[in-house]
Design goal:
The structure is a single chain. With 156 residues, this protein is an alpha+beta fold. It is elongated. The N and C termini lie far apart (79 Å).
Length: 156
């Protein structure tokens, strides 16, 4: 028995989606995951049947996610670009740069994993807070100036 032509095209396009390094998802109008590529599976595991994307979104970012879906339903020509936190099924927090567009039957989503970058950013902020705390507790003045005619101050 031969496959129907549209089934072959769909299988072919899904295989093509697997070649992309970013996570690609097709969502139904209610936010339920209809299709996904291997990059999504590698980042967040294989979703179960009838799984809604909001189940992955961190609880503090869910209102932003729902607002984006609502806005794209109202104005389908717009695009939603945002940094969102997701929770892996094992409980690990992940950060993604998300782009979402409205399609004929639902939504198309591209998610790029920025977790490593975000962790470095948080570590740098913690280090800066620690340094500032140390400097604030020292009696006296700490400065850094350029060796020019005006002794231009860079940090005081």
């Amino acid at each position: 028995m031969m496959d129907r032509p549209e089934a072959c095209v769909q299988a072919s396009s899904l295989h093509l989606m697997d070649r992309f390094p970013a996570a690609l998802l097709e969502l139904r109008d209610n936010g339920q995951i209809a299709h996904f590529n291997l990059a999504w599976v590698e980042l967040m595991d294989r979703p179960g049947p009838e799984r809604n994307l909001v189940d992955y979104v961190h609880h503090e970012d869910r209102s932003l996610w729902r607002q984006a879906l609502h806005e794209l339903r109202r104005r389908p020509e717009t695009c939603f670009n945002q940094r969102l936190r997701f929770v892996h099924p094992c409980g690990e927090l992940r950060w993604f740069d998300v782009s979402l567009r409205r399609g004929a039957q639902g939504f198309y989503l591209v998610a790029g994993d920025i977790t490593a970058h975000k962790r470095r950013e948080i570590a740098l902020q913690a280090s800066q807070r620690s340094s500032m705390s140390l400097l604030d507790s020292m009696p006296g003045l700490i400065y850094r100036g350029r060796n020019n005619r005006d002794w231009t101050m860079e940090f005081v």
